[in-house]
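User: structure tokens for this one?
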Amino acid sequence: MKKQSYLKGAMILVIANGLVKVIGALFKIPLANIIHEEGMAIFNTAYNLYACMFVIATAGLPVAVSKMVSSSLAKKNYTEVNKIFKAAVTLLSLIGIAGSLVLFLGAKLFAVYAVNSPSSYLSIIAIAPAIFFVALLSAFRGYFQGFSNMVPTALSEVAEAMGKLIIGLLLSYLLLPTGIVNASAGAVLGVTAGTFFALLIMVVTYMSKKKEQFPVSGGTLGTSRSTKAIFLELAKVAIPITIGAAVSSLTNIIDVVMIRQRLQTIPVTQDIFHTLTEFYGLSSADVVIGELMKIKPSEILYGAYSGYAIPMFNLPPTIIMSLSMSVVPFISAAFAVKNTSEVKKLSESTLRITMLFSLPCAVGLSVLSQPILAAVYNNARAASMLAILGYAVIFVSLVSVTTAMLQGAGHVMIPVRNMAIGGVVKIVTNYILIAIPAINIGGAPISTNLCYLTIAVLNIMSVKKIMKPDLTISGFILRPVIASAAMGVGAYFTYQGVAKFLQTEMMHLSLNFLPQSAPFTPVASSERLKIVIALCAAIAVAVVIYLIMAFVLRLIKKDDVVMLPKGETLAKLMERLHLLS
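Assistant:
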């Protein structure tokens, strides 16, 4: 199979992820309007449990398969490539079956005792089979990524998103008359269907390409290690990665469990009573002044955070994951043949591109949080949460790529240690901040920032030591921050100006977790259209300002452009225009 360039493979995944995010928005936005905060809390409880189980079951093996396949290909040992894939399929099938059974048989235990959400029982059962499908799917993805062929992964991601969209939305709508619990379970069942369709696509792709995998000729097959040795190598690489990924995933479970529990330790004051009844629309029967916050109010607050702020926050980091998946086989191959200059160049470019992409996304999400949520959901109740959470995009993106780089270089235990430290930070800050009445749900996004900032700093220190990228404070942090800040200022004033001209709701930049009056959303469709127009104008101006600042401050280097498809031609043109540093 033809080997794709590093950034070409990344761009294929970026395009696929962009399409997946559009499809995801078409799923999540109507879903939030169908089942609202309470239903989203149930949906996200089941989904986060599934995500944790999935990570524990499968996170390390696809990376291990990708790393081992790319290393064997670099040495032209094609016999071993086949044995690695067969071993991975066997191992992941067994793990997937075990994971599905644990979630299915333990659904009651998880729902009632682990997360204190009895309503999520059916949703947990509905999502249990997805672990088997996605486990087997990940073996195929790791195999193709080892070839640096990202097209099959991209196709399967789109198929997964489409299955979730069509079946999940349809079932949630049809089951809504029977209650929120059933409607949420129907939406979750769409996730399971999506993973099945993705697996089907990957199996068909593998069968169609099976005969053209290797340039087989005399003497190129090489000798292979035994199956036992391959299993041991897979375990050696996968287990530390799995532990690290599990620690990362457990931060989501920490949120699922701790947010509600800590919110329920808050005594309801007059201000909190008004916030829950006026701003969130709960009845006075659900909130009593002088008593501790009950289960339903805590579910509503968690649903606003997980159902509205988190999906917007997750958009940029999932696109950065494209870089992470693409960089592993290239760094592994470079290390396999001891090409230190290539390792240094790849690490520099990856970190630089990550900062150039994540910083403006973070600033944009934070500054424009209120109109973004109003335009997308017609519900801006989570604006203060998103305004804080937006900045975590920078740290989560850096954690994603630096973890992949360290794994590709064979230092799989370093991210494990760093993520464990970040997990401790998350637990401590969640415990302290969420129980403070004036902060309440605002403690969750603050703790997320502190958690991933800690991990990112520790990972970057390790990358600097191992790969020795040439990163300066000015080029890596200061100039990108200046460009993003200028962009943020431009976006803010553009939105305010257009909103004032159209006589619609202007932004109110305040971090208030105890609002006393009803939010301006929902609004009539005519007003929402005005908000969308003002938001689009602000985004367009922001993009122009950032591009201008990127070229003025020389943020883009020739090496970054050269790795793009047709990059040499584009780099020459940009050099003639003096746009590259």
